[in-house]
Amino acid sequence: MLMENMNWMQVEEYLKKDDRVVLVTGSMEEHGYNTVATDTQTAWEVAKAACEKTGVLMAPSVNYGFADWANAFPGTISIRPQTFMSLINDILRSLMRQGFKRILILNGHGQNEMASYVIEELSAEVPDLNVRLRSWYMLPRAYQIMQSQGTDHWDHASWLESFSWINRPVEVPNKVKPSADLQDYTTYGPQRLRELIGDGTAGGAYTKDEEFMLNYFKTAVEDLVELLENGWGKEMHQRAIG
């Protein structure tokens, strides 16, 4: 179900029976001991597993986002917010023109949620467009698992983004790191932030055992399957606005 592995005739054939597509958005930024592509890789694996279960097509991922805060860490590649939103705008318009009407953006990078402004603008212009934007770690049951671990036990690049079979190129320390005070991190600048968080993990437990992480991953996949199959009704918009 990967669009990049199909020819145009296969995509056209798919559109005869389905108008759904998933677009993954991520980032290239430091993630401690995990890969700099963590935000893309984790969201992509969740989306791929859900699309295999539902038969929904996956578009190629958007690998770059706004991550200026991490520019003091080598491997971070940041694009400007206006560049990101222009890119999402162009991608959505292209998908719309081809006949995709139900588009789910599965996000792995918090700052990419600015795509909601693009979606709002396009939805006013094209009333029958049906776009959902979700960050995979905020899917309902996956988020419950995250919250159950206590808010002082997870932060950027902690266990919640560390999967041994997805994005862990080296051994991760088995310890808990006190969270840094990053309330006003947007004003600190890249070098000061690097000094504050050191190895790139902002706080919390670095890792969880494999069984726990597999359950966490599978729960996120189940959440996404539910959304792809039953989450396109306009009543969801009404709840969100209310």
Gist of the model:
The protein is α/β, with parallel strands linked by helices and 242 residues long. Helix content is 41%, strand content 10%.
Keywords, separated by commas or semicolons:
Rossmann fold, single chain, two-stranded antiparallel sheet, four-stranded parallel beta sheet, 242 residues, 6 strands, globular, alpha/beta, disordered C terminus, 10% strand
Verbal overview:
This protein has about 240 residues and is an alpha/beta fold. The chain has a single domain (about 5-230), classed as Rossmann fold. The chain has helices at about 10-15, 40-55, 80-100, 115-125, 140-150, 190-195, 210-230, 235-240, and strands at about 20-25, 55-60, 100-105, 130-135, 175, 205. A 4-stranded parallel sheet has the order 2-1-3-4, sandwiched between helices. Strands 5-6 form a two-stranded antiparallel ribbon. Strand 1 (about 20-25), helix 2 (about 40-55) and strand 2 form a beta-alpha-beta unit. The chain starts with 7 loop residues before the first helix and ends with a helix.
Topology:
Elements: H1 8-15, E1 20-25, H2 38-54, E2 57-58, H3 81-98, E3 102-107, H4 115-125, E4 130-135, H5 140-148, E5 176-177, H6 190-197, E6 204-205, H7 210-230, H8 235-241
Give the N-to-C terminal Cα separation: 35 Å
How many β-strand stretches? 6
Approximately how much helix is present in the residues? 40-55%
Strand line-up across the major sheet: 2-1-3-4
User: Proportion of β residues?
Assistant: 5-15%
Q: Counting H and I runs of at least 4 residues, what is the number of helices? A: 8
Morphology call = globular
